[in-house]
Amino acid sequence: MDFEIVYTKGQQAFRKEVRDWLDKNIPQIGELPVDGQHITPEQDKAARAFRGKLGEKGWLFPTVPVEYGGKGLTWEHAVVIDEELSERAEEIPHVPDNSSLAIPPLLIYGTEEQKRRLIPPMARGQVTTWQGFTEAEAGSDLAALRTTAIRQGDSYVINGHKLWQGGPYPAENWYLICVTNPDAPRHHNLSAFVLPTNLPGISMIPQQLFVYNRHQVFLDNVKVPVENRIGEEGMGWQCVQATLELEHGGSGRIGLPKVMDHFLSYLREAKKAGRILDALERDRVVDMYINAHVERLFGLRNYWQRATKQWGTYEGSQLSLWGKVQGLNRSKTVLDVVGPDALVNEEDSAAKVRGWLEEHQRQSVLTHPGATIEIQKVIMARRIAMSATQERAAVTV
């Protein structure tokens, strides 16, 4: 099946509208750092203000219904917005935000009151949201988490610890999974919550990691109203699955991996300087380019499946698995072709392509977010009847 997009005249006219708006509204704050760890407070503030404008326009989450803060647009419009924002990504400071993972379970399992109260601030870019899943002993085996939320009257009291949260600057919102019934079986003992991060009892400690800065968060007798629980008590695993189906690749992706642009730019400049690739190097670059386009087609297929509500089985994990493996392969090819210069970061004037190649070298080793390579293989095996344990794709939007 051909998943390539054929644009209508209406889409082309809408693309011009989006481009004109971006030309006028992207903040003019100078050249941005390659590494998100080096985003300044001023740049972060400008980026959040831009997200607010995008949200006010309805283009931050364009397919979310108007009554919940979105624009109610079709996926045919959404793909144009995604493409144009992707094209200008290096002009806009990145703001770590997991609202795209918190909104689907709210749309599926939230009450009407929750949808109207909790989704609009996210959809309009008024808040950013962290995904509070991972703990010291619960990552790939997420059902092993230990953070508890014990009901006391009209509130839950939360105690526990979450790792690898957000980015260098705090979020206003938190999408949190906790154990609400310690005596219930695995998967039936969890509940999901959306809560502000400024509640008493929440403390954050920055984590400076190999690739970017995160936070570890401690919760000490944090009191959360019952009305901030998504769905019924014990439905946390359903909420988790609605999120992970997208995080594992089910949401799809538009365009080629950005490293391709930077690597090809390096090769063009190297050729001008007299650097000629040998036959083996040329073969590896061609393989890298072909495999990047395979990844693009996997992403486009999944995007199309989500847009047409034709949810598959293994396709999300297939995209994630392919992307993680090819990310490692790409980093090896870049390092072998470029040599030690690929490890020079943006702080050194000798950095190639402003240090984007070095940033990719570090990013490529991150194969654990959204499930490791091994977990993606397990999911695929279960969904194509190659495992004693069978499973279906989760319900999501």
Description of the molecule:
Helix 4 packs across helix 6, helix 6 crosses helix 9 and helix 8 (279-307) runs antiparallel to helix 9. Strand 2 (148-152) and strand 3 form a beta hairpin. A 4-stranded mixed beta sheet has the order 1-4-5-8. A 4-stranded antiparallel beta sheet has the order 2-3-7-6, with no helix packed on it. It has 3 domains: 9-95, no CATH class; 129-234, Beta Barrel (Butyryl-CoA Dehydrogenase, subunit A, domain 2), CATH 2.40.110.10; 251-383, Butyryl-CoA Dehydrogenase, subunit A, domain 3 (Up-down Bundle), CATH 1.20.140. The protein has helices at 9-25, 41-57, 75-87, 99-109, 112-123, 236-250, 258-272, 279-307, 315-338, 356-363, 373-383; strands at residues 129-132, 148-152, 155-165, 173-179, 190-196, 202-208, 213-225, 229-230. The chain is globular and about 75 Å long. The chain has 11 helices and 8 strands. With 397 residues, it is an alpha+beta fold.
Annotate the secondary structure layout.
Elements: H1 9-25, H2 41-57, H3 75-87, H4 99-109, H5 112-123, E1 129-132, E2 148-152, E3 155-165, E4 173-179, E5 190-196, E6 202-208, E7 213-225, E8 229-230, H6 236-250, H7 258-272, H8 279-307, H9 315-338, H10 356-363, H11 373-383
Q: Could you tell me the mean pLDDT?
A: 93
| Strand order across the largest sheet | 1-4-5-8
Q: What percentage of amino acids are in beta strands?
A: 5-15%
Major beta sheet summary: 4 strands, mixed
In terms of per-residue confidence, which ranges show pLDDT below 50 for 5 or more consecutive residues?
none
Order of helical and strand elements: HHHHHEEEEEEEEHHHHHH
Number of helices: 11
Question: How many E-type strands?
Answer: 8
Q: What is the chains' assembly state?
A: single chain
CATH architecture of the largest domain: Up-down Bundle
Our Rg estimate from Cα atoms comes to 22 Å
